[in-house]
């Protein structure tokens, strides 16, 4: 006959007056909801309207509806099992199924399943090793080497000894507890670069991780250095616990390439104009910035014609503002400009001085009187220049303009010069003069909104508003320019001016162990790159939201290391975004794993824990529950406690009772026990030698009380301030406590049963009064000390005298070598190694038997 696990249904009743799970009698029976329209309905208010899994008798009381519901088949359907209840909380109850040396768990009408992984990647529908890049089992427990199970090609290094990291894992023989501070790193390698700079290639990441709530980003796997050109990919959890994979195209990241950025948000009763980079500040020449400020494209801007003609001149020249050497170096200028029709040239940004007799020209970016945009670089000593100019006039209003130069130099330098308007490259013509070689580092100052004319004064002023003027020491790419344009909204904070794509799970990942994975198919359409990301939790694809970026082209190969459980900070000096808990079984593939392959690496068998109880023992077990712990006893087994810390986090452990009870005291004065050890305090390892046959193998785990005689002990002292006395030795039995001269403070006698870890009063504290307690009893065993608080004056004295010289130490047998020799661990301190015949064997052991019933 097949035996099934049966789940008993819970009572749920709804009355006309509300929900009451303890309301078990309905004097007017059960009614139809249609009766609520009756004008005499008041007399039915004690009736039951909706009853689930219960029936209402005609007399009123309810009883459980007979019948059962099939939930699951036990492990061995031909064997006997036992079902018991476990109420964790008012709204969270379990049914426990005990079988032969196993226990399974049920709740909410279903069986609790376990998440199980594998270290075997071959066979069946598993992904195999053809596209396997690396496979870190994280079973390492010696040294800092973290071995690659895929042929050892990519062995990594832990930031501390793996013996510190190694814990019981989810898969295999171990896992790493990264503890929010440790990581595993491997220097960059082509195998982990899934791009050629123009096109991405597919890859997949997978690992087991223990999720906890820490309200910060936690990285699982990364090839990423914060705020640098070494950002490629990372798999992580958000502060809210959502799983995400993001990738970065650093070709559009220009924050670190700024020479200067004048946001022109300045609004003060002075002329200072601030460089956001922090080096090249300047000043308006006529008006305070508060008189020039206007609403800009991004925050504020400066209207340089609001009060006459004005411009911003930098405080000093700098070599950083010149882009030459033996040959030119790359440069770019970008700005938001408000165009109006005028009949004179308008300068956006210049390092250009045409003072008669002392020409000092390097570069200039401006509009000519026709409204054409020009960018020119000069070779002063050769009286030569190279120029690009737009073919079309710029319309009036706000525009984002940009000039780039690749630094190629020479007579064809203009071939490396490009103009952009509103994020798109403009059609241009070149205008060159003389034999250009390269720019020369002159002394003229950079000016925003003007340039120096023949008279040595500023001229060619910008006639309207300027905003967010930027100077770079690189040739901006078209995608970078598009990013800075930002669909007409602009960007001031260049730390976010990037091409990042990502997909993030719609829901947070619950706490506990999970199998987390991501795949990326590298779509041919880069503008839909994020659509190629699939996120998996516990073997199944999850709902996620993809965020694409029209400027994304591909990841750019960098030098960032591959890391487990962290990424590198921007300075490259430390790690951050550590994984807070455990990780196990990490693998990286250079292809897209299919959903079937992902599923093959994860399974969900019934969750169960191992118990010592055989089938024949099950109906002799006795249980009692106290708060979150259930105590289980059987006459043939040491008592155990069953504890729950999660749906799939249960443990059953020996109770290790250390306080008794004990059998009658030994009456054979010749049968002594001699302890021996380096120390005799709690947790000390000692040996026990009996004078004749005494010990049995079945006594391992049993406790013994060993009574020895100690010398009379006394501590005394004087208080002159608040403080604590020294502590007495551990003792039990009679003691006395007296004080004298306490006329200005509070004295408390404290006791500790855990060697000083915590203290409680032994006697009621006295203020301005002395103790005279010569005959007190310590029954359990403790150490004592005296505490003075609220000290006022005087020199009160105290004395603790231990008058009972009998020390009742307790030890637990850990091994039996023969009938006269055993090893033990001290539970309650012994005096020394003196032999004694005053001992008591514990009442319970495998040799003597264990309790059959339990109560609280």
Automatic annotation (TrEMBL):
Q: Name one Pfam family in it.
A: Laminin_G_3
Residue ranges of the TM segments: none
Q: Which InterPro entries match?
A: ConA-like_dom_sf, Sialidase_sf
Record Gene3D superfamilies: 2.60.120.200
Where along the sequence do coiled-coil regions lie?
none
- Listed SUPFAM superfamilies: Concanavalin A-like lectins/glucanases (SSF49899), Sialidases (SSF50939)
Question: Protein name, please?
Answer: LamG-like jellyroll fold domain-containing protein
